[in-house]
Amino acid sequence: DAFKCSEEVITICAMLTCGGSVFYRPKDKQVHADNAHQNFHRGNVGDHIALMHVFNTWKEANFATQWCYENFVQIRELRRARDIRDQLVGLMERVEIDLVSDPSAHEQIKKSITSGYFYHTAQLQRNGSYKTVKHPQTVHVHPSSGMVQVLPKWLVYHELVLTSKEYMRNVTEIKPEWLVEIAPHYYDKTDVAAAK
């Protein structure tokens, strides 16, 4: 584990299997739901680390169903993520990969995510949209993202979802120089030169 955060990364991987359905927003309690969800995104940590916060906070609450109701989080999705996470832990133990944890190492966690999704990157354009770095196409931050108001210059995203526009779901801010550092076989300095 080059980034010394394997435990956090497997939590995020398990949570990503939920697609976009971790949070819910009942019509009669939209403000309460939005406030609860924003707590996980505090500090503009990005959607990946926010998902980790959801799981870890639920774990601290002894996986309580009541906690899910209070935080407007789908219990069924979290239980599925917990099962997948347990399977990933078992696989890592079987191949003798150490579980290393540092939940406060946000930069290392983001670099680790970038190393897995380096081909899913986008750069902010003047008009507020994004352009994917390789094979350029116009994309937008999904409205459900905790980063939708932030608009960082560079993002890594989990997947594209096409509705009325092409949306990036589960985004995290990155530094463009990480791309050359992490994936020199895919990016060179000219790909990230516009970042300066």
Automatic annotation (TrEMBL):
Gene Ontology cellular component terms for the protein in this record: catalytic step 2 spliceosome
Reactions it catalyzes: ATP + H2O = ADP + phosphate + H(+)
Keyword Hydrolase: yes
A matching Pfam family: OB_NTP_bind
Domain DEAD-box helicase OB fold: 109-186
Gene3D superfamilies: 1.20.120.1080
Residue runs in coiled coils: none
The entry's keywords: ATP-binding, Helicase, Hydrolase, Nucleotide-binding
Source organism superkingdom: Eukaryota
Gene Ontology terms, MF aspect: RNA binding; RNA helicase activity
Stored PANTHER family: ATP-DEPENDENT RNA HELICASE, PRE-MRNA-SPLICING FACTOR ATP-DEPENDENT RNA HELICASE DHX16
Name of this chain's protein: DEAD-box helicase OB fold domain-containing protein
Species classification: Eukaryota, Viridiplantae, Chlorophyta, Chloropicophyceae, Chloropicales
